[in-house]
UniProtKB/TrEMBL annotation:
<keyword id="KW-0520">NAD</keyword>
<feature type="binding site">
    <location>
        <position position="264"/>
    </location>
    <ligand>
        <name>NAD(+)</name>
    </ligand>
</feature>
<dbReference type="InterPro" id="IPR036188">
    <property type="entry name" value="FAD/NAD-bd_sf"/>
</dbReference>
<dbReference type="Pfam" id="PF02852">
    <property type="entry name" value="Pyr_redox_dim"/>
</dbReference>
<dbReference type="GO" id="GO:0016152">
    <property type="term" value="F:mercury (II) reductase (NADP+) activity"/>
</dbReference>
<keyword id="KW-0676">Redox-active center</keyword>
<keyword id="KW-0274">FAD</keyword>
<dbReference type="GO" id="GO:0050660">
    <property type="term" value="F:flavin adenine dinucleotide binding"/>
</dbReference>
<dbReference type="InterPro" id="IPR016156">
    <property type="entry name" value="FAD/NAD-linked_Rdtase_dimer_sf"/>
</dbReference>
<dbReference type="InterPro" id="IPR004099">
    <property type="entry name" value="Pyr_nucl-diS_OxRdtase_dimer"/>
</dbReference>
<feature type="binding site">
    <location>
        <position position="304"/>
    </location>
    <ligand>
        <name>FAD</name>
    </ligand>
</feature>
<keyword id="KW-0285">Flavoprotein</keyword>
<protein>
    <submittedName>
        <fullName>Mercuric reductase</fullName>
        <ecNumber>1.16.1.1</ecNumber>
    </submittedName>
</protein>
<dbReference type="GO" id="GO:0003955">
    <property type="term" value="F:NAD(P)H dehydrogenase (quinone) activity"/>
</dbReference>
<dbReference type="Pfam" id="PF07992">
    <property type="entry name" value="Pyr_redox_2"/>
</dbReference>
<dbReference type="InterPro" id="IPR023753">
    <property type="entry name" value="FAD/NAD-binding_dom"/>
</dbReference>
<feature type="domain" description="FAD/NAD(P)-binding">
    <location>
        <begin position="9"/>
        <end position="318"/>
    </location>
</feature>
Length: 475
């Protein structure tokens, strides 16, 4: 086979969120760019992750609201059509897809190659019948579902976040292996669409999150009859299509019709021939420094491939770091303490920076925890969303937030305010001084910031003495 040879400034491997951001930014600023993608343009987030999961959650929420009813409105049994709900998922993907399409990126000036890429030397990559030599390479290959080595799993039909969206018949009883964000979101969506659902986790469901906040979410799902089995490691899987049995370590069995495996993600780096590119990797992905550069100075890795926080918005953030570094030669390092995350269950759970336990461990007596409960928010009360035990708590050290946990309605939206505050190193006084329109959920953020000052102002004898003196002598 005769190879076509291309020389370029930047070669991006992977057409997901991070890779597309690097490619579009670089080519529009004058760099020559080759973009390589073997699968679907848009990557995991568009086709198998963020977009389809939120679309299905939306369909499930509509069914839930119909059952629940509201003030003066009787609940009714919804007529759920699972196939139509999945059509809605595909419609959402199709609507967004043109923005990530090969045609758009070629119109921007990128050379797009649809083939698997592998390194053939520290300076070259082969994709199909093309050899690309580049000044800089960016590995943005994302991740895929991790399939755990459970006895019998390989012989039983199971779903992952990639294959789930091909379903058109609702599972009678969905078994969800893994109680992380993906597992819990899909558990609630399917329960609301009329399926029986059991979640099994070898440790604790939502175990990476603040335990108090995670408990609020778990109680909400259990109230909707989602069975959540924790500390329940699965040791064997048996059965066939429509009749699957999970045997737990204690010998008990859980039966269901369908199995969704959602126990984590693994970086897509194993087929890149990294050793030929003199690129080191570890168990998490490509080994990079704070500038996202690998052991080969020509090669960078971003997003899930870099082995850090596995979120679409992190890949986009990494792309911005590389744009500053590769195109302008400016020093740029990736950080993580200002990166928010959210689980889109109902209620939502969002976090930025340290959890309360992490902050206590890191700062000890220097830490102050300020909080506000959603039950006291007027907008939540007026819209019937104040129950359920939701809250916001802010971990404060030296008058600055170092972590924020929010659980409740629209937590994923509310956390963005704190992302700005943490990234800008705002002080609590500045945050408390924000004027929010009334009534909004945004007032929760202001109230949490204000409550930081409550003991300093209202329960402080010195302040009371000063106020009395001022009132006595003020003309």
């Amino acid at each position: 086979m005769t190879l076509q040879k291309i020389k370029t400034d930047i070669c991006v491997i992977g057409g997901g969120s991070g890779g597309l951001s690097v490619a579009s930014g670089a080519v529009q600023m004058g760099a020559k760019v080759v973009l390589i993608e073997a699968g679907e343009m848009g990557g995991d987030c568009l086709n198998y992750g963020c977009v389809p999961s939120k679309a299905l959650l939306s369909a499930g929420k509509q069914a839930h609201l119909m059952r629940k009813g509201g003030a003066g409105i009787a609940g009714v049994a919804p007529q759920v059509d699972y196939a139509v709900a999945m059509d809605h998922v595909q419609s959402a993907i199709n609507t967004i897809a043109p923005h990530d399409s090969q045609e758009r990126f070629e119109s921007l000036g990128c050379t797009v190659i649809r083939a698997f890429a592998r390194f053939t030397s520290p300076t070259t990559v082969q994709a199909g019948d093309t050899e690309i030599t580049a000044r800089r390479f960016v590995i943005a290959t994302g991740s895929r579902a991790f399939i755990p080595p459970i006895d019998g799993l390989e012989s039983v039909p199971y779903l992952t976040n990639e294959t789930l969206w091909q379903q058109r018949s609702a599972p009678k009883h969905l078994l969800v292996l893994g109680g992380g964000p993906i597992g819990m979101e899909m558990a609630q969506a399917h329960r609301r669409l009329g399926c029986d659902v059991t979640v099994l986790d070898a440790m604790d469901a939502l175990g990476r999150d603040d335990p108090e906040a995670a408990q609020v979410v778990k109680e909400a799902l259990r109230a909707e009859d989602v069975a959540i089995l924790e500390q329940a490691p699965v040791v064997t899987v048996s059965g066939g299509a429509g009749d699957i049995t999970l045997t737990l370590k204690d010998g008990s069995e859980v039966k269901g019709s369908d199995l969704l495996v959602a126990v984590g993600r693994v970086a897509n780096t194993d087929k890149l021939d990294l050793e030929k590119g003199e690129i080191n990797r570890n168990r998490a992905g490509v080994k990079v420094n704070a500038s996202l550069r690998s052991s080969n100075r020509r090669v960078y890795a971003i997003g899930d491939a870099a082995g850090g926080m596995q979120f679409t918005h992190v890949a986009g953030y990494h792309a911005g770091v590389l744009i500053r570094s590769m195109l302008f030669g400016l020093p740029a390092k990736a950080q993580s303490d200002h990166i928010p995350r959210a689980t889109y269950t109902d209620p939502e759970l969002a976090q930025i920076g340290m959890t309360e336990a992490e902050a206590h461990k890191a700062h000890g007596a220097k830490l102050t925890v300020s909080r506000a409960d959603i039950s006291g928010n007027d907008r939540a009360i007026a819209t019937g969303r104040s129950s359920g035990g939701g809250f916001i708590k802010v971990m404060v050290v030296k008058n600055r937030p170092v972590g924020v946990t929010i659980v409740g309605p629209d937590a994923g939206e509310l956390i963005s305010f704190w992302a700005l505050a943490v990234a800008s190193r705002l002080k609590m006084g500045q945050i408390a001084g924000v004027v929010a329109p009334y009534p909004t959920l945004m007032e929760l953020n202001k109230r949490a910031a204000g409550s930081y000052f409550t003991p300093k102002l209202f329960d402080n004898p010195r302040v009371q003495t000063v106020v009395k003196l001022v009132q006595r002598f003020l003309p």
